[in-house]
């Protein structure tokens, strides 16, 4: 383990002292647990974050789609708007 110093707000420090007393644990242990939980949560979120390019890959592979059809539909839509 490496020693690290942190600055806490007054209310954070008071709540941490109360929690440490209630749980019978040192404040340092509670801080290590909180940091560990935060890092695990962030790591899990990073793994589940969706890459839009990867998500789109193969999106239209089962559809019959052509550029010609697309532009004809756009032309038709514009005519309907008039």
Q: How would you sum up this structure in a few lines?
A:
By secondary structure, the protein is mainly alpha-helical. It has helices spanning 10-23, 27-48, 52-56, 67-81.
Number of strands: 0
Order of helices and strands: HHHH
Spatial extent as radius of gyration:
28 Å
Secondary-structure class: mainly alpha
The domain tally reads: 1
Outline the low-pLDDT stretches. none
State the end-to-end CA separation.
71 Å
Instruction: Sum up the overall morphology in one term.
Output: elongated
Largest sheet: none
On the 0 to 100 scale, the average pLDDT is 87
Protein described:
The chain is mainly α. The chain has one domain (10-81). It is 68% helix and 0% strand. It has helices at residues 10-23, 27-48, 52-56, 67-81. The radius of gyration is 28 Å and the shape is elongated. It starts with 9 loop residues before the first helix and ends with a helix.
